[in-house]
Every structure is written in C-alpha cells, then in structure tokens.
Amino acid sequence: MPGRPAELAARQRSPDCHCRQPHLAWLRLGAALAVVIPTGFIAVVTVVTVVTGVTVITVVAPCEELIMPPVPWNERYATNAVPWDTGEPDPQLVEFVAAGGVAPCRTLEIGCGTGTNALWLAALGFDVVGLDISSIAIDRAEAKRAERGLACEFLTADFLADPLPAGSFGFVFDRGCFHGFDDDDSRSQCAQHVAQLLGPGGVWLSVTGSTEGPARDHGPPRRSLRDIAHAIEPVLELVDVHTIDFHANLPSPARAWHIVARQRDVPAQPSSV
Ligand SMILES: C[S@@+](CC[C@H](N)C(=O)[O-])C[C@H]1O[C@@H](n2cnc3c(N)ncnc32)[C@H](O)[C@@H]1O
What we know:
Layout: H1 5-12, E1 13-14, E2 26-29, H2 31-34, E3 45-51, E4 54-62, E5 71-72, H3 73-78, H4 91-98, E6 106-110, H5 116-123, E7 127-132, H6 135-148, E8 153-156, E9 169-175, H7 184-197, E10 198-209, H8 225-232, E11 237-246, E12 254-262
Helix pairs in contact: 7-8
Bound molecules: S-adenosylmethionine.
C-alpha cells in the first residue's frame, strides 16, 4: 500500500547525515509581509526597526521550504557518501550470532544497503531477504551476491509504505534503518511491521544511533531510550538494550544502542496506576 507522494519523497531523503548540521535557513519578512505567516511557519523572533521615522516590524521565521532537506538515499549511494558502508559485517551482528543469539533461519534485513550483512548471514546458511529503499544499493548488493554465488533475495522497497515480504521470519536485523525514521509515528510503524513479520520466538536485532556520547557533528541520527521504548515496547518485548560504538568510517566513534526485541507470547500489560 504505497504512501502519498509527499510521504514517499520524504522517506527517500536520508536523515542519516553523517555530516549532520542544523540546516535552519531564515526568512526575513518586511512589515507588509509580516501580516500573514503561512501555515507551517513559526515566528520565533520579532524585532522592531526604525527606518526614517517609520516603524517597520521584521518577523524572523524559519521557512519550511528553506530548510535544506536531507539527501535522498539513492544520492548518498550514487556519490558514495556512505560512511556506514564499511564492507565488513557489523560487529554487533557477528557477536550476536557467535553467542547463539540466533541460529540459521529465515531472516529479513531492513535497510540492507549494499548487502554486506545480508550476504554474511547467507554465507552462514541463513535464508535471507534484504530490502532497501535505494535501488542503487540493491543493485550493488545483487551484483555482490551474483559474484559470490550466494543465495539471497534482494528487493527495492520502502519498509514503511510498500507491501511487506510474504511469510514470517525468525530473525530481523537492521543497522541504521530504524534510527533513520525521525518521527514517533514512523518508528512505531517500523516496529509494528517487524512484529507483524516475526514468527513465534522471532527476534529483532537493531543497531541504532544513540543520544549517549559527546556532542558531534557527524555520525548516525541520535535516538533516546524513550524513543526506542515508545516505538517497540507496545508491540515487542525489549530484552536487551545496551550502549555500543557504531562501527563506521567516522572521524570519531559514535555511540549507538544494541537493541534486541522479541515476539511477545502475551501482549504488553498496562502500566499500573
Ligand atoms: C545507514 S544505512 C545502513 C545500510 C546497511 N544496513 C549497512 O549497515 O550498511 C540505512 C539504510 O536504510 C535504507 N532505508 C532508509 N529508509 C528506508 C525505508 N523506508 N525502507 C527501506 N530501506 C530504507 C537506506 O537506503 C540505507 O541503505
């Protein structure tokens, strides 16, 4: 069920700005224009300027159109602005599998990028579907798969808007996809889709940028524990959340969350009052 064109266009944009800056542009409106502040603009500063005896009110407001949009995912891949794409399987995934967190089973990687993790799992005998919204990433993943002669299915799809892959999965992995959804509703929808896809006893491992660690102007988007619980707890049981470093080609390490959630046997019960 595809989303509205504006929603799809928004999702194609990458909030995963590894050179993230506050891109607030400011629009100055003269007195004549100050009368109307179009919907979506929020006046934050009002100053009074005196020009040759005439009082001019200047409204300074952030203008939605002038806020630089995040770069679309395909463009990130086309220009190789992809510091997460290390060519090595994620250390959290490697440790999780080595520790017996999951055994070979039907597996979905959401936001699989160029397929590094999906193909690593496939080589271990996991039956993997990798999906990504970026067709360029999926073409690269498919080329690697063919070269290595591995069995792994790659799909170009929007995990929030497109029909979900058929069947259920024992394992869902994501590294940097969940954290890219930058509003509560999108993260909740992502978690609901994961819950819908996991079979009994199924687990989701997510590597998600964290609000821990010092201020930085690079690295993955930051999500708080509250953001994570808000999205995941209603639909899945959170069994492990701990702090790690995000493995990527960055000027300095960025803190991240190692999140494990599993299919619930019984629904979450209401909090006591
Ligand atoms: C930070 S990258 C990580 C890629 C890959 N997991 C890796 O570790 O190399 C996040 C990925 O999520 C994909 N993505 C973002 N939004 C998506 C969506 N709505 N549906 C599917 N993939 C999405 C992006 O295209 C991108 O490849």
